[in-house]
Amino acid sequence: SNFHPSLRIGFIDSFSYDVVPQFITMMQSKISKFICLTGGADRLVERLLSHEVDVILTINPCFEIPDLRRHLLLREPSVLIFPKSQYDFRRYFRSWEDLAHCGLPFIRNYSFSGGGQLESQHLTTHDLKLMGTIQTDNNGLRIKLVSDGKGWAIVRPLTLLQHEKLLSKLTIYSVPSPLIERKVYILGRSNISVDLYRDIVDSLANILNSEVIPRLTEIFSPTIVKSIEVYPYTNK
Question: What's the CA gap between 36 and 102, in Å, rounded?
């Protein structure tokens, strides 16, 4: 195995449980040593630039940084989560403006996290104001707060998949128009070989298509699942 390269790779948190273990298994025969880190998108970019890792998954394409391999792996819609109750919140909102008066506060993603920046950009672009006093950069905590009836939140399907035990306490809705979409990129340092980079991209795309999306189909509506797109390297 010493003839194989080592791989230092960073994953955003929503990939850590359902994708990373299978990725390691799939790539194990081609890699002599793995270092797998997880964290927020911005922190992973910092680790890539400081040479702590060679490849990362992030929602920030970093177009301003030269000499990076860059591939769009996944396009994923956002969804709204509300606490499970006999009250059908969907009856009381048809737009983002309606959500401000749905009867529950908005639990925000921390403004300086990747997800928080995605939300803030969307709300600012469309001049939307949602009321809430709680912010957190921890997705599990945010989902738990919603399941406990403390408010509602915007999340991604892959994020919810990591917290299946809470799904029975949630009601999941599609977001109103305009939609919030998350794009996940694979960024690699230029010293990573093209062959290894292609194997990384295609292995992750294969796991998403063969394992993750079928599980999402069991949880989410067909409209939400159809909005998820995966792009292998071989399509380039």
Answer: 41
* Tokens linked to 135: 């912010």
pTM of the predicted structure, to 2 decimals: 0.90
* Count of alpha carbons within 13 angstroms of residue 94, beta-carbon side: 1
Distance CA 182, CA 120 (A): 13
SS (H, E, C) 88-147: CHHHHCCCHHHHCCCCCCEEEECCCCHHHHHHHHHHHHCCCCCCCCEEECCHHHHHHHHH
The Cα 157–Cα 100 span in angstroms is 22
3-class SS of residue 86: coil
Residue 62 φ/ψ, nearest 5 degrees: 55, 45
Cα–Cα distance, 147 to 45 (Å, whole number): 32
Q: Residue 152 and residue 149: Cα distance in Å, rounded?
A: 8
**Maximum distance among all alpha carbons in the chain?**
61
Residue among 187, 229, 226 at smallest CA distance from 208: 229
pLDDT digits (tens, 9 = 90+) for 154-213: 999 999 998 989 999 999 998 888 888 999 999 999 989 999 999 999 999 999 999 999
pLDDT in tens, 50-108: 999 999 999 989 999 999 999 999 999 999 999 997 667 777 677 888 888 888 899 99
Cα dihedral sign, 126-130-136-141: negative
